Amino acid sequence: MFLGRQRELNLLRKELSRKNKTAILIYGRRRIGKTSLISEALKSASGIIIRFTAVPDELGENARRLSVAVGDALGIPGLHIPDFESLLKYMASLNQEIILEIDEYQDLRKKAKGEVIDAYLRDFIDHAPDTMKIIISGSAIRVMKGLLNKENPLYKRFSLELSLGELDYLESSLFYPERSVSEKIVLYSVFGGIPMILSMIDPELSVEENIIALLLERTGLARSYTEDILYAELKSSGGAYSAITRIGNGKRSYSEIRSALEDDESRNSLDYTLEQLQKADFIEKRQPINLRGSRRKMFYELKSNMLRFHLAYIEKHPEAMASTAFFRKYISPSIDTFVSYRFEDIARQWFLIQTGKGIRDDIISIGTYWYDDKNTKSNGEFDVAIETLDGYEIYEAKFLSHPMKEALIKEETSKIRKIAGLQISAIGFISSSGFEIPGGKRISGEELYSL
């Protein structure tokens, strides 16, 4: 069953239904759902569909395999065109309604000069008839984004570009619809929004049992996924592993990350490392929305909840047994704190979804709000803030096991009001378990999941 990504699916279907030629670029990390999205879109598409997945082999071998796929789709058994450029020219000469998909495109470029392959594809797109649709997809994000650079032969050849990240918290919840609001928040905070992993969550098991089975067990699918990223991808990428482990353990600013690195080589290459981690979609750079452009208030965050969980708990105890005892000793005491930070991100996503649906048309930006209280010589950050036409609204997000009490709301409001220099138009509260007394600017967990 295909779940989520309705926006991307609608865009892809619309592009494939066009009467003229179109070229589509889709990229995202492995297991993020590229193949499922394309398969779902192709169900309603017309024409001859040719699906091909490149392998990291010689170009001639890929041409041979693609020619077999073309022959099978066209009903020409034994079609053999071992030259890749000639094969593309042959397909461009066909006056038939065809959809050609080339998956893992970066592997096609590995054993050949990448830009030569790009040039072959450019000529194919330029000379193909209007009945041709081309989908290029891949999991090497930096390589795939590079196809959009001005210097690349494929520059301005794509009519649609889809960058697939993890599902948001709301779409992720479609994989466990019967769970309580609190359980949905925990599951998203731990497993994030990777469709393949979400599909493995067992509805018959508790949240704790699913974490043990998928993340703590050495053969657990989620653990294998995170370890593959950490040890296969990042440890071979210079200082990337060192930087991302520091970020995953709470070092957010550039100076904190740099100070925590153990060798001069990693420190000297940190700017480049952080840039590459951003391009590969591992981390994102954040600034308070009221202090845009301030390098001193620039922070780095992991984009993957599951990778963050792995670094917080599993990386520190790699030899521990996947057991209830391990969970209760090392995870239970701090899991609510871990989830509370992710709950703040859920709250920010909620405002973003509202904006996308046109529910809030007054929102300019969403993020955090930084304050400096000169009277008390203190500073800090409100982790949920929105900039509106009327000013800044800030929200306190609380992951609670019980409705938020009125006394706590009054206490928090009083503390905020005492901070000198705040330029805010409203104060609100977001509580996972609702409120003792509901009211304006009070958003419950049920409301977060009712969109």
What's the layout of helices and strands?
Elements: H1 6-16, E1 22-27, H2 34-42, E2 48-53, H3 59-74, H4 84-92, E3 98-103, H5 105-108, H6 114-127, E4 132-138, H7 141-146, E5 160-163, H8 169-172, H9 181-191, H10 195-198, H11 207-216, H12 221-234, H13 240-248, H14 254-260, H15 264-268, H16 270-279, E6 283-286, E7 299-302, H17 305-314, H18 324-356, E8 363-373, E9 378-388, E10 391-398, H19 406-417, E11 424-431, E12 442-444, H20 445-448
Parallel strand pairs: 1-4, 1-5, 2-3, 3-4, 10-11, 11-12
Antiparallel strand pairs: 6-7, 8-9, 9-10
List keywords for this structure.
451 residues; alpha/beta; 45% helix; 17% strand
Describe the structure.
With 451 residues, this protein is an alpha/beta fold. Helix content is 45%, strand content 17%. Strands 2-3-4-1-5 form a 5-stranded parallel β-sheet, sandwiched between helices. It is globular, with a radius of gyration of 25 Å. The chain starts with 5 loop residues before the first helix and ends with a helix.
Could you describe the largest sheet, including whether it forms a barrel? 5 strands, parallel
Structural class category: alpha/beta
The coarse overall form would be globular
For the secondary structure, the number of strands is 12
The proportion of strand residues reads: 15-25%
Average pLDDT: 92
**Spans of at least 5 consecutive residues with low confidence:** none
Task: Compute the CA-based radius of gyration.
Answer: 25 Å
Determine the fraction of residues in helical runs and give it as a percent range. Answer: 40-55%
Can you list the strand order of the major beta sheet? Answer: 2-3-4-1-5
Number of helices: 20
Distance between the termini: 21 Å
